[in-house]
Amino acid sequence: MNQMMICESPKKRRSLFSLAEDQMLKDLVSIYGRDWDKIAKHMNGRNERQCRDRYRTYLSPEIKIGDWTPEEDALIIQKFNEVGKKWVNIAKFFPNRSDTALKNRYNVIKHRETTTSGSSTEKSCPSSPDRVFSSFDFPDLWEDQYIEW
Fold it and tell me: What is the predicted pLDDT for the residue at 117?
């Protein structure tokens, strides 16, 4: 199946969680606890898995979102070298970080290593061959606070 067929399918389009949906999700968790079936019934257009994953990965007060320490960076690299891409297993060593956050952080570390070592992964824009673009030129496109479902 080619990409054109996937893009043209009549299935519902994926959308980002809005700030209002995030707040509603937090409020519903405070009312229903972690009964994702009940919560999803109040979240128009969202299913149980989407609600659970959004809360666990980004909204839970137990999750630390913010600056990373050099010690955390070193531990991510160490654990990745030991167990590979088993982010759920690696997350056991980081009680307040989600497996998704660890994977994203690992990718940032690796990206910085490749761009600072001289082997850039940046691509030039065909309409402007003198200008080189990277994902860092468009931070709103890769912001990890809002994920697409």
Answer: 73
